Amino acid sequence: METASQWTLTTFIERLADPRDPSGGGVLAAVTLAGASSTARMVAAVEKKRSARDSVRTHTFAAAETALAQLSTRFLQQSEDDRAVLARLLAAMRAARKKTSRASEEEVSLAALAAAECPLTTARLGLDLLRQLASIAPLCSPFVASDLAASGQLAHAAIAAALFMAEANLPLLDPKSRDRIAAQIQSTREEAVVLADELSRALPFAHAQQGESDARPPA
């Protein structure tokens, strides 16, 4: 079966608009984070090449490049997982409408828990992305600041979106699970604000001597 990561961009956009497809905000958040991570990976690769004579900087950017590649892969997997948990929840809710039983109610609750935990995991991984961006931002030249800033803004927005998707499932959870997930959502939201601010302050815009520019060097 073809996975979401194998779709063309046109197919992806159409699937998001299709009410029959279990691709919603959680999938979009995960794919956005994958894109933000890949853009940051490009920045790390460019800066690694520019820092060839500085072994410490080269090592730092190489490590970031590897970590960002791994995050991109994780985000794409999260998009697949999100489709799966949403499909399970919708199926459980349809079944529960046809028959009222304790077993069907429990399946809805379990499916809702998975549907809440999946985008929450996506958001937590998004924090890892913001940490990576903040770690390399002070070492980056103004030449790539706009690309890193774009990655950071997209990451922060995608984290917020993923948390909204997790929050939407809270009413379907049992009280204990609801309180646990709600607390994790709040702490993740607060940490995202702190990390995004840290990244913003670390970007070298204040010292830029040139306008906005794409990080890729001329051919």
From TrEMBL:
All residue ranges annotated as the Cyclodeaminase/cyclohydrolase domain in the record: 8-185
Domain of life: Bacteria
Gene Ontology terms for molecular function: catalytic activity
InterPro entries in alphabetical order: Cyclodeamin/CycHdrlase (IPR007044), Formintransfe-cycloase-like_sf (IPR036178)
Protein name as it appears in the record: Cyclodeaminase/cyclohydrolase family protein
Species of provenance: Thermalbibacter longus
